[in-house]
Amino acid sequence: MTDNIIEVRDLVKHFPVRVGVLFKRTVGHVRAVDGVSFDLKRGETLGVVGESGCGKSTLAQVLMRLEPPTSGTATFEGRDILKMKGGELRKLRRDIQIVLQDPYTSLNPRMTVGDIIGEPFEIHPEVAPKASRAKKVRELLDVVGLNPEHINRYPHQFSGGQRQRIGIARALALRPKVIVCDEPVSALDVSIQAQVMNLLGDLQTEFGLSYVFIAHDLSVVRHLSDRVAVMYLGKMVEVGTEEEIYEHPTHPYTQALLSAVPVPDPELRDHRQVIRLEGDVPSPVDPPSGCRFRTRCWKAQDICATEEPKLVTRVANHPSACHFAEEKSVVP
Ligand SMILES: Nc1ncnc2c1ncn2[C@@H]1O[C@H](COP(=O)(O)OP(=O)(O)OP(=O)(O)O)[C@@H](O)[C@H]1O
Ligand SMILES: [Mg+2]
């Protein structure tokens, strides 16, 4: 019996690029997720970090079974998510929930918060019979730090941070085991971000939740993450514990991302080395041969164009997909 609540192996999701009047001709594929493997342990937070378009949301969609994968497997508590049907799939729809980035567009403006938070009970009446729903919704409002008396208000009557709390309450309604947080604080002011992150941390302890926590920026996930996976163009390039990734990064891309994290201490800021990445992220339709990061990498050599580096442990006790992985402290 393993302690992994989710196991993902060689997961691939390609979207066809179609052209023509009726979009019938396929001219290529967006390799949104291109061979990703990882485990999520029960009760842990796995941070997933990478630039826009690297495949983070696509990965979340496949895990939620909102998109079928092109190939690969994903299991939840040992059962294949992608093969689930009927009652098993209904149960999965309770056990894994998602919190989305934009609290402005993800809540239906014509529904009261009571209806928004209680909607999952309509689909899963076994969790809360009709007579007890209003009470449950009030409890959920309280759990996420909102006033239960505001149950009949509409989303526009709440601030951005409060709306995200509504989204979180809704995700909690069915007592899930895993919550996929897809950039839940990216649209919020920095001061509000910390409050929502703290709430998510408290809820994790209270309800024994496991999180896949997606973000653009390494600084956002540090506090909450037990482990962090760094993605680049559909692949994971480095995976390690919070300490391994932040204190002993070995992949040049991770090192570059870390060097861009704002440092509040001016002493440290003056001494650290800033790595500037050249160029843009290449197209996921036609990624570079060999190592996908090589076109922006200052370490790239001939082998990087011909041989794809595997995500294996070379140095520093954690896996890194770089032929020249080397421990380097970025922030002194
Ligand atoms: N339904 C779709 N059809 C075609 N291409 C898609 C689809 N969804 C995503 N893509 C493409 O797949 C790639 C990965 O997108 P994805 O949304 O997963 O990235 P992301 O890491 O979540 O980015 P962001 O940080 O901007 O949210 C992008 O090139 C995107 O344009
Ligand atoms: Mg996204």
UniProtKB/TrEMBL annotation:
It comes from Actinokineospora diospyrosa. It comes from the Bacteria. This is Oligopeptide transport system ATP-binding protein. Pfam families: ABC_tran (PF00005), oligo_HPY (PF08352). Residues 17-258 form the ABC transporter domain. Belongs to the ABC transporter superfamily. GO terms for molecular function: ATP binding. Keywords: ATP-binding, Nucleotide-binding, Transport. InterPro entries: AAA+_ATPase, ABC_transp_ATP-bind, ABC_transporter-like_ATP-bd, ABC_transporter-like_CS, Oligopep_ABC_C, P-loop_NTPase.
